[in-house]
Amino acid sequence: DLENALLDTRLALQAQHDPLTGLPNRLLFQDRVQQAILRGYRNRKKVALLWFDVDRLKQVNDTLGHRIGDELLSEFARRLKASIRESDTAARIGGDQFVVLAADLDSVPDAQGIAEKIMKVLRASAAFSGHPLKISASAGISVYPDHGLGPAVLMRNADLAMYQAKRAGRNGFHVFHPELSESLGRRLEIERELGNAIEAREFHLEYQPQIGRDGNLRGLEALLRWNSAKLGVVSPAEFIPVAEEAGLILQIGEWVARAACQEGAKWIRQGLDVPGIAVNASGLQLTDKTFSDMICSTLEESGFPPSKLDLEVTETALVGNLESALQQIEGLRKMGIRFSLDDFGTGYSSLNQLRTLPVDCVKVDRSFVKDLDRITGDSAALVRAIIGMGHNLRLLIVAEGVETEGQLAILRSLGCDVFQGYYFHRPQKSEAAEELMRAYAVRRPHRPINAGEGRAVSVSPIPDLVSELVN
Ligand code: C2E
Ligand code: CA
Ligand code: CA
After folding, report:
1. Cα 372 off chain centre by
2. 29: confidence class by pLDDT, cuts 50, 70, 90
3. Distance from Cα 270 to the centre of ligand 1, integer Å
4. pTM for this predicted structure
């Protein structure tokens, strides 16, 4: 009957439309894109996808409330609809994401013209429940057949172009560039996935042992590992710079510090002989004024002793001589936390500057260690100079990236204090690190190691080095 028929139509409409704005939703939109592509193919016309992201919607929701946020979205939808042709489609496909389908175009600049027109209409100011607000959006454009042949690819590329526009400063639009898509696409994907990696519990830590001249376990460097559901395992060398650029490093750095301290405290409670734990801190973390508070509360909450915490920072973080960074470091050192200068020799600071930097330890960069047992190159002279200067200043010298017996022999002869690298151990999962702590505790008291006594140990929990000395 009529009533049921009406109800059916309404349900069908609801399933295809966004309740807030009345615009088509993603499903219906994709269907229309498919139709437009078929027509475009037949008539040799282009089809444009314009992807809009409302700027600062979250800010509006947070400060003025969701009702005003909703009003803004509805107004945005009205304007979008008013500025396109009857035959084109505007849709809402996510919280602050809108798309427009414009068909029957002759060129890519046609699509840009449409975007310009829409942006102009969107920008006119308006009042929402008495609050004058400027609407603005960032937009990305992809065009069939230039930037993709199917709806899915076109949507993704319009989205990528929108992301580029956002990064270039809001309130503008970008046309998709095929050349940029690969590297940028990967970067953007990393940025997005990183955003919820903590919540999705995709991070864990591995620990790489640091061995003293006496063959004892001197420390464990905590290294962040990311196994992303979408991207698989991504190296920190790749994602840490992205995290820094995307403003995610503070959050991630806090997670690392907390995870390391909690695990360290747990190990102590289990009665393990826990050495110092080194945590890497990005330069950006140090320039953040809440860094030392964050470290203090992490130590308090976990119960991990400050005297066992070692923070690794790079020269670039210190050479700027940022007053607030230096003050925070001083404060933390007074509590007994140690600081290590990571990757020393790769940055801009000279040997002489070592004098002025507030650190307890210097880590000779991997690249110098690598060159040590080659005949060419003057790494040995450089490392000797670093060690000489460092010891003068009473700094502990750690060599990282020790991979061969030859490198170890030279480093030993130069007076290096601590060694870290695949020759001894690769970074270890928690359980393996526990085994190692037990194994090293057993081999005490000690006698000094000499080159040749170490063995490259990858995963075996009890290293040859240890069993050799214990037996
Ligand atoms: P890094 O601080 O210099 O860490 C040492 C890196 O060298 C680690 O790579 C480690 O696995 C690797 N390595 C250790 N021994 C050897 C060796 O004998 N040979 C070679 N070829 N490599 C060795 P990983 O874990 O991939 O980390 C890369 C970089 O990512 C780190 O360099 C550090 O700068 C950054 N990173 C890692 N975890 C964190 C973190 O929690 N926070 C921050 N801010 N950065 C981190
Ligand atoms: Ca490090
Ligand atoms: Ca390093």
Report:
1. 33
2. very high
3. 27
4. 0.66
